[in-house]
Amino acid sequence: MNGLPEVTTGGGEPGSLRLVATLSLAGLLSGLIIVLAFETTLPTITAYKARMLREAVFNVLPSVTSLKRLVYRNGKLVETEDEQKGDQAIFSGYDQNGRLVGYAIPGAGPGFQDTIRLLYGYLPAERKVSGMEILESRETPGLGDKIYKDESFVSGFRSLAVDPEIRAVKKGKRTAANEIDAITGATISSKAVVRIINEANRQWLPRLEAAQPTVTGD
Description:
With 218 residues, this protein is of the alpha+beta class. It has one domain. The chain has four helices and ten strands, in the order H-E-E-E-E-E-E-H-H-E-E-E-H-E. It has an eight-stranded mixed beta sheet. The radius of gyration is 27 Å and the shape is globular. The relative contact order is 0.13. The mean pLDDT is 86.
């Protein structure tokens, strides 16, 4: 309009290929950062979980002074610290004189919200559970989380018969050695813990009765 030439800067909208390339690069870098962070922290996380697991063993088998890691392989219980993918491992606990006290057995199964992972002690001479500790749970705060916060519920596993199987009953209705009071308001989570232990017993008790531990050269 004023007779001056129109000036263009060439800074228009970036092309679609350039946008795709930029986003792809950003995604790649983000992925690499996540993988690097995971690989860096994995040994620390693994070591922490292993330490917490061993501490839990002494909690569910309170009279033991030493323990051994046992893996079920080819129909035998094998003593080994060598961890292999797919291992099904438990711990055997011994008193100060080296006598077998019992076993610490892991279990896992669905709760009300998510998977519940736990560890419990088993005394073969008495056929009783000697203790239970929740290792991982995302049950509802204030309700389902009572499976590890409610002391009366947790203590109920410290001398609990496994025959014919453990049963969760309405609070105050416990009459048998294999029964435990469920938590009021958290019945589903309570019964989930009992179900997990019963399922683990069905898997492990026949193995413990049939197989004697052997030591590998690992």
